Amino acid sequence: MSRTLRLAVIPGDGIGQEVVAEGLKVLTAVLPADTKVETTEYDLGARRYHATGETLPDSVLEELKGADAILLGAVGDPSVPSGVLERGLLLKLRFAFDHHVNLRPGKLFPGVASPLAGSPDIDFVVVREGTEGPYVGNGGTLRTGTPQEVATEVSLNTAFGIERVVRDAFARAQARPRKKLTLVHKNNVLVHAGRLWTRIFEQVAAEYPEVSTDYLHVDAATIFFVTQPERFDVIVTDNLFGDILTDLAAAVTGGIGLAASGNINPSGEFPSMFEPVHGSAPDIAGQGKADPTATVLSVALMLQHLGLTAEAAKIESAVAADLAERVGNPARSTSEIGDALAARVAG
Amino acid sequence: MSRTLRLAVIPGDGIGQEVVAEGLKVLTAVLPADTKVETTEYDLGARRYHATGETLPDSVLEELKGADAILLGAVGDPSVPSGVLERGLLLKLRFAFDHHVNLRPGKLFPGVASPLAGSPDIDFVVVREGTEGPYVGNGGTLRTGTPQEVATEVSLNTAFGIERVVRDAFARAQARPRKKLTLVHKNNVLVHAGRLWTRIFEQVAAEYPEVSTDYLHVDAATIFFVTQPERFDVIVTDNLFGDILTDLAAAVTGGIGLAASGNINPSGEFPSMFEPVHGSAPDIAGQGKADPTATVLSVALMLQHLGLTAEAAKIESAVAADLAERVGNPARSTSEIGDALAARVAG
Ligand SMILES: CC(C)[C@H](C(=O)O)[C@@H](O)C(=O)O
Ligand SMILES: CC(C)[C@H](C(=O)O)[C@@H](O)C(=O)O
């Protein structure tokens, strides 16, 4: 019996193309003989937008539904007005495919230099809500372009949407050795959304007596990210706070070149999407300078999600070994790093 | 001729009382002989709330209008539901007195240990908008307390409100040696508010050709706060992003015990308010363990605002000297630190 993984690939903009190529290289190398990968590449991003005005045509969205998973490189280019590709492509995918669990591990691998003194022991995971909050795109302007302009942004939060991501986070915390879950919000200022998050968090907590819980305001959480990151195990938070905290998490764990993410639809109704946390980095695009490690680790998250846990673990070990050997050695190109990782997982 | 500074003092909750006492000690010591300070203390915070149900009575608000400035310790106590004192007292003051410039320096003083490796050269100031954005309290709930609950939070942004704080930030940047101003927002997701901030920022920039400008998304800004904080000179940002970034700024510059802030009404129509960035820290309240330095530096910001720049500079030098001597010496109590600083500014 053989299996086929139908993978939709969206390289996107800037360094997206380069890092995705390495992600696929490692994926092919790690898969067992009985598992084939069938990739379909989608030309989406700045080029397509300039050529046709499209960000994500309905027909493509329809086709993507047939994929087992999506691998995305990066989205965004200075030639396109800010927000067009982010809202029209990346966020459209997250919302259309109901990616409510945005999973972002924060792990400092041995040997990796942290900007924090003393290289603390960092190993947590952020469960960021992915389909609500300030990201819903529910805003507008009045008297646009005049000195009397007013602009609004509405954060929408539902008990339904919060409960499902909070449940996911509790289940993840329960499955980890430390069994700790921290809710991050700003419930002393955003009292309506904050109370809803807090109420649901406490309700679900009652079903998980083994999981120890605490609460931090988002501002205080950033302090602990740099002064005491080892205190965190699992964090659950809203879409915007999760966006901010996971970039900070990337920074303290060796940089955005290593930070992986999964946009997960746990029900499987729609394909989940995996992407590095970093952006398209147009300044270094096409130069073979981008670190593909974040994409490779995102491939590991994808395999985990698809139930190929041994293969996911192989990739993580390969990355750990590779990172440990980087210290003191000359910098390698994007494809050299990809080759090295592919060789390790195949070996 | 003699001057009198009418100072309203709101010690508030937790360590507020202790740190404010030291702030006043240093203030009295630094003022020239011809300047008297006349303090009126207001009993506001958790105790008052439990006793009377009041957070900020109209009569007190009216009285406070007559002050030249307000010194606030800290607000918030676990015995009061989250948000009640924050919204009913602290934010009510900021909004009622139109404190649209929330000024928060981020400076790593020589000798102070930073959690960042290599102790980078950090000296920036965050100009946080203080009267708009997600802080307006414009939200609500539907089907409250049920599994169908929906909660909203509306971020309100006006051209008027943004322009005045952006102008303030440009003027500050222009007056500093590096003349650099960074706008921080999330204009690729919060496109309505983001475009308004960006448009006004660019308009005002045209009037300040000597100020070099750039833009960062808030998530990317947190990365630079830990990897390259020396890149920042002046930052202007919205209320919520400013809240988050200034706690992070405090963390990388030696901790929340040193972070000062001013809630400024530049027109002088209402009194400005000065407060440490830290909270009420109920866990260490009443033990003489709190560091009053943030409050003392907030007093310096107050003197600066009132035009007593020589005295403000004296306090900053005293703090710098005191901090440089802390390394390797035993920890001192709240009042010992206050005494030492008072002695330095008087000497
Ligand atoms: C590009 C942008 C829309 C996106 C986000 O804000 O979610 C990115 O910052 C991320 O974290 O994946
Ligand atoms: C206490 C809270 C309302 C306040 C804020 O969010 O502004 C605090 O965090 C601050 O930064 O001054």
Question: What structural keywords apply?
Answer:
leucine biosynthesis (chains A, B), 347 residues, binds 3-isopropylmalic acid, 2 domains, homodimer, Isopropylmalate Dehydrogenase, ICDH/IPMDH (chains A, B)
Summarize the structure.
The structure is a homodimer of 347-residue chains. Chain A is an alpha/beta fold and 347 residues long.
Describe this structure in words.
- Chains A, B: It catalyses: (2R,3S)-3-isopropylmalate + NAD(+) = 4-methyl-2-oxopentanoate + CO2 + NADH.
- Chains A, B: The record marks 135, 186 as: Important for catalysis.
- Chains A, B: Pathway: Amino-acid biosynthesis; L-leucine biosynthesis; L-leucine from 3-methyl-2-oxobutanoate: step 3/4.
- Chains A, B: Keywords: Amino-acid biosynthesis, Branched-chain amino acid biosynthesis, Cytoplasm, Leucine biosynthesis, Magnesium, Manganese, Metal-binding, NAD, Oxidoreductase.
- Chains A, B: It is found in: Cytoplasm.
- Two copies of one chain form a homodimer.
- Chain A has 347 residues and is an alpha/beta fold.
- Chain A folds into two domains: 1-107 and 254-347, Isopropylmalate Dehydrogenase; 114-253, Isopropylmalate Dehydrogenase, CATH 3.40.718.
- The first copy, chain A, is 41% helix and 24% strand.
- Chain A has eleven helices and twelve strands.
- Chain A has helices spanning 16-30, 46-52, 58-64, 84-96, 159-174, 191-205, 218-227, 239-252, 293-305, 309-326, 334-346, and strands at 3-12, 35-41, 69-74, 101-107, 123-129, 133-142, 150-158, 180-185, 212-217, 234-237, 260-264, 272-276.
- In chain A, the strands form two sheets. A ten-stranded mixed beta sheet of chain A has the order 2-1-3-12-11-4-5-10-8-9, sandwiched between helices.
- In chain A, a hairpin with a 7-residue loop joins strand 11 (260-264) and strand 12.
- In chain A, helix 5 (159-174) packs across helix 6 (191-205) and helix 9 (293-305) packs antiparallel against helix 10 (309-326).
- The longest helix of chain A is centred in the C-terminal third of the chain and has 18 residues, at 309-326.
- Chain A is globular and about 55 Å long.
- The mean pLDDT of chain A is 97.
- Strand 7 (150-158) of chain A pairs antiparallel with strand 7 (150-158) of chain B, so a sheet runs across the interface.
- One 3-isopropylmalic acid sits between chains B (76, 86, 90-91, 243, 277) and A (188-189, 219).
